[in-house]
DHA2 family efflux MFS transporter permease subunit (Virgibacillus salarius), 505 residues
Amino acid sequence: MIAILFVGAFVAILNETLLNIALPSIMTEFDVSPSAVQWLSTGYMLVNGILIPASAFFIQRFTNKNLFITAMFLFTAGTFLASLAPSFGVLLVARMIQASGSAVMMPLLMNVMLTAFPVKKRGTAMGTFGLVMIVAPAIGPTLSGWVIEHYSWRTLFYIVLPIAVFTLVYAIFKLKNITPQRDIKLDVLSIILSSLGFGGLLYGFSTAGENGWDDPLVYGTIIVGVISVTGLIMRQLRMDDPMLEFRIFKYPMFALSSAISIVLAIAMFSAMILMPIYVQTIRGISPFESGLLMLPGALVMGVMSPITGRLFDKYGPKLLAIFGLFITISTTYFFSKLNMETAYGTIMLLYTLRMFGMSMVMMPVMTNGLNQLPMKDNPHGTAMNNTLQQVSGAIGSALLITVMNNRTETKAAELGKEAMANIDPSTMASEQAMAEMQAQIANNAMLNGINFTFLISTIIAAGALILSLFMKRVDTSQNQKEQQEMMMKRTANHDNHPATVTNES
C-alpha cells in the first residue's frame, strides 16, 4: 500500500520540475511570451498552495483510498490532456488539473505513514519518504534536459502517463483504508481566506524576482495575502473544529521543527536557483549537463534518506541536525568562492556534499516535530508543514534573486567605472572591443552577485544551526498509546463487520 502511494506521489512531484526546461520549446510551438509560458509553473504552484492547506480537512473527512483515487484520477486526466494539448490554453488548464490532484498526494502520504508505522519506526518510514520529497524534483531537470534534446516536450507527459494509469488502476484494487475519519464540515470562509492568503503570498513572492518589488501586482498580492492569512488564523483559533489547526504550534518541538524547516528551505533554494544561472549563463554549460551536475546529489540524498531515518530512530534528531547543518553551511560557504575557472567536477562534488548534509537534517527535524502532535492532529501537522515549505520556498527565491540582482547591478556599475578609468583611449573607437568589455563586466558582476548571495545563504543556514541546538527528542509514549488503541479499535471493527471493511470504497 505504501508502495502505491509512493509511486503516485513520486510522479506527481516529479511533474512539478519536469516542465521547467521545456518552457522555451513550448513558447516557440505555441508562439506565447515568456511571461505567459511561465504560468505553466506559476499556476501549478498556486493550485498547490491553495489546496494543500485544505488537505487536512480532506484527509479527516474522506477515506485515504477514495482521496488517493480521486487525486490520482485528476492527475492522470490532466497528464493525458496535456499530452494532446492543441493550444497553450488547453495545456495550462491541463496543468491546473494535474496540480489539483498532486496537491493532496504529499500530505496524504505523510499522514498514512504516521498512522501505519509504530512511533518508534517513524524515522525509518519518513526517511524513505525523503526519496519522494527530494529525489523526484532533483531528477526532473536532468530527465527533462535529455528528453528535450532528443524528443518533443510532449514526450515528458508520455513518460508520466503510463505510470500514473498503472498506479490508479492498482490503487482501485489494492489500496486499503487505515486513516480514521471524522464527520466534519468544510467552512467556506476558511477556504476563501486560505486561497486568497496563501495564493497571494505565493504569487507575490514568486513574481517579485522578475517584476521587482515596486510592481503594484507584486506588493498588492502580498498585502492581500498577509491580510487574508491573518484573518484565517484568527478565524481558525475561534473555531472548535478548524479547517487548519494553528494551535499545534503550542507544541514546542513542532514549532521549532517548523522554524528550522523554513530557514533551511530558504537556504536550500540558493543552490537550486543560483547554480543553473552560474553553470548555464556564466559558464555556458548545456541545460542537460547542468541537470546532470545535480544528479549525484539527488542520488546521494535518496540513498541517505532511509539510513538517516534509521539513525533518527536510534539516536534522535539533534546530532543528525547539527552534523548535517555543519556540512550544509561549509559547502554553501565554498560556493561563495566560485570563479570562472572552477572545475565542473569540483562544483558537482560540492553540490553532492551539500545534498548529503541536507539529507541528515530535513526528515529527522520534520519527523521529530510531528511525533509531538497527538494522532488527531497529524493531518493538520502534515498540511502545515507542506504549506510552510511552499510559502518559504517562494519567499526564499524572491529574497535571494533580489539580493543577487542588487549586488550584480552595484558591482557592474563599480566595474564599469574602473574599466573606463583604465581603458586605453585608442581602443574606444572599436565597437567590438567595447562589446567584449561590457560582456566581461556583466559576467564578472553576475558572478560576484551569485557569490554574495551564497554568502547570505550561508548566514541563513547558520541560523538553522543555532535553532537546532535547542532540539530535544520528544516523548512518544502518549502517541504510542493512542496508536495502539486505534489499531485495536480497527481490528475490532474488522472482526465485527468484515464485509463492510473489506468492501469499503
Observations:
- Residues 107 and 382 are 5 Å apart (CA to CA).
- The chain has three domains: 1-184, 187-242, 248-480.
- Confidence is low (pLDDT under 50) at residues 497-505.
- The two ends are 15 Å apart (CA to CA).
